[in-house]
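This follows on from our talk about sequence and fold. Go ahead and set the record down below:
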Amino acid sequence: MNIHSMRLDRPAAGKRHLSVLVIGSTYPRHEDDYAVPWLRESVARLRGRGHAVTVLAPSYEGLRSHTIDGTPVHRFRYAPRSWERLTHEQGAPNRIRKRIYQLLGVPYVAMGIRSAARLAGLLHFDVIHAHWPFPHGPIAAAARYAGGAPVVMNSHGAEFALARRKGWVRPLLRNALAGADRLICNSSHTAAEVKRLSGRDSVVIPYGSTVEARPTPLPRNEVPRILFTGRLIQRKGVEYLLRAMPAILARRPAILQITGSGDQRESLEALATSLDLGGSVEFHGFVSNERLDALYAGCDVYVNPSIVDDRGDTEGLGVGPIEAFAHGRPVVASDVGGIPDVVRHERTGLLVPEKDPEALAGAILRLLDDPDRAGFLARNASAYASEFFDWDRITDRIEDVYRAAIEGSDRGRQAPPRRHDRGVHEAHRHPSHSRD
C-alpha cells in the first residue's frame, strides 16, 4: 500500500473540488486491513487531489463508523452483530450460496437505503460513485433521490455471474445499470457484459496495483521459484497449477509458492500431498505487504491460473499480474475474463487455455528455460503497467467521468455549492449517524 507516500496532486486550474460519496460492500475495517486495497488507494488518490470523499459500507460484526486514512467511513448495521458477515471476509458472491446470507440481503439493502438517504440529504454530494450495481443500485438511487447528485455505477464482473445463476437478479441488475448517469467497468470483458444486459456503453477504467513499482532484475534462482498470490477459491484455478507441477518437476527442480487463504486451502494441500509434491510446494497463507514484496522479488515467474468456476464466475480484471508487472516479473495466465486486458500474449506475458495443466506447465517451462525471453516479457510488462495502470492516469479518468455525470445532470448545470472536508468530518461525528 503506497497511499502514505504518494504525490498529492491537485485538480487542474479551473476545476473545482468535488464532494464524493463512495458506496461499496467492503472497505478496510482498520488500518492494517488489506481488504479492497485498490478501492482504498482510489479514495486516497481522490482525497489527495482535494476532493472530499465519504465512504458508505456495511458493518462487519457490529463495527461502527470510523475513519481510515483520514476518510470518514459510515457503517450501516443490517443484522445482529454475530450475523453481520455477509461481506468482507469471503465476499458476498461466495457468501450468498448459503440460504441465511441470501435472507440477509433484504435488510442489507433496506438499511443501506436508509443510511444513504440520510447521509446524502445532510451532505449534498456532487457525485455518487457506487461499486457493484447489484446490490447497490437501490442504495445509490436513494442517495440520488435525497441529495440530487448523479450516480456513477462501477461494475467489476462478479455481479453478472450471479445474474446468470439467479434469474431474479437479472432485472435488478439491469435496472441499476439503466438508472445510472455514467457507467465504469474494470475491463473490456465486463464492459461487454454490461452492453449485453443493458445495451449501454461504459468507460473502461482498470484499477492499478497498490504495491510500489520496484522492477528488479530476474533472480535466476538455482531452483526456480514460481509464485501465485490470491484467494484460495475455485475461480483462482490453483488446482490446475498444482496439477502442472509434476510435469515441471520431471524436467527441472522448482518451488511453487502459494500465498493467500480461502475455502479451498485444505483441499489444495491434500491435492499437493496426493501428487507427492513434498517440499516443492509452499503454502504461506496470508502475508504482510513486506513479505509479499519479497516473494515477488524472489520469484522467477508469476502464474495466474484463473478459470470460469462452476457458478460462471471468473476474473473481472486480474490484479495479481499487474502487481507482478510492477515488480518486473514475467507472467503466465489463463485466457479468461478480463485477464487479456492485462496480459497481452507474447508481448507482456503468456496466455494459456483455462483448466489445462499441460499448457500451464509448457508455458512456465518455456520462460524458465529461456531467461532472455522471460526478461523481454518482464521489461515490456513493466513499461505497459507504468503507462496503463498508473494511478495518476486512472484518477484523471475517474475525475473525467465524475464531471461528465455532473455536467449531464440538472444538478451539474445549476453548479451547487461544494462542501469541504470539514463538513464531511462534522457529519461523521454527528450523533444521528453513530448507529450506522
Remarks:
- Confidence is low (pLDDT under 50) at residues 1-13, 411-436.
- The chain has two domains: 19-208+390-433, 225-388.
